[in-house]
């Protein structure tokens, strides 16, 4: 199994955010305000020139009225192999961000039973190479 490159992961997240923002008729200016950045900085992230951090993705998910697991599922499911894509994303997180993500997913799973357990199980069994 080959893993996706970091730019591909960045592009998947950026493309999903752009499409969902447009679907919800939310402006880049509004999103930039939520993320406490300029519209220009936000635009660079949507275009894939810069990366969204995990905390920024959490804020974006909240603006889209999604949980973090829902965000990742909807962003990556169209790519076909969520395990490969999400594992590739997790390899790029520092240990503190990875721990934070796992804890957040556990809390959200306990609060919202419609979250797919497979994402949590994937993260529990994930260990960076």
Structure description:
The chain contains 8 helices and no strands. Helices cover 69% and strands 0% of the residues. It is globular. Residues 1-7 have low confidence and may be disordered. The chain is an all-alpha fold and 129 residues long. It has a single domain, classed as lambda repressor-like DNA-binding domains (434 Repressor (Amino-terminal Domain), Orthogonal Bundle), CATH 1.10.260.
- Series of secondary-structure elements, N-terminal to C-terminal: HHHHHHHH
Write down the overall mean pLDDT. 75
Round the Cα radius of gyration to an integer and report it. Answer: 14 Å
CA-CA gap between termini:
14 Å
- Assess the beta-strand content as a share of residues: under 5%
CATH fold-level name:
434 Repressor (Amino-terminal Domain)
CATH class descriptor name: Mainly Alpha
**What is the domain tally?**
1
Tell me about the biggest sheet? Answer: none
Shape: globular
DSSP strand tally:
0
**From the 3D coordinates, which CATH architecture would you assign?**
Orthogonal Bundle
Overall helicity: 55-70%
Structural class: mainly alpha
Low-confidence stretches: 1-7
Continuous helix count: 8
CATH H-level name... which superfamily?
A: lambda repressor-like DNA-binding domains
Which helices and strands appear, and what pairs or packs with what?
Blueprint: H1 6-23, H2 28-34, H3 39-46, H4 54-63, H5 68-77, H6 82-91, H7 95-111, H8 117-125
Helix pairs in contact: 1-5, 2-3, 7-8
């Amino acid at each position: 199994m080959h893993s996706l490159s970091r730019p591909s992961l960045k592009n998947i997240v950026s493309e999903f955010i752009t499409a969902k923002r447009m679907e919800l008729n939310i402006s880049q200016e509004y999103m930039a305000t939520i993320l406490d950045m300029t519209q220009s900085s936000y635009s660079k992230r949507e275009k894939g020139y810069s990366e969204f951090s995990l905390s920024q993705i959490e804020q974006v998910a909240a603006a889209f009225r999604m949980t973090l697991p829902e965000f990742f599922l909807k962003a990556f499911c169209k790519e076909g192999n969520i395990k490969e894509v999400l594992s590739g994303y997790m390899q790029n997180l520092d240990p503190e961000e990875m721990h934070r993500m796992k804890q957040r997913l556990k809390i959200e799973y306990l609060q919202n039973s419609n979250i797919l357990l497979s994402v949590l199980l994937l993260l529990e069994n994930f260990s960076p190479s």
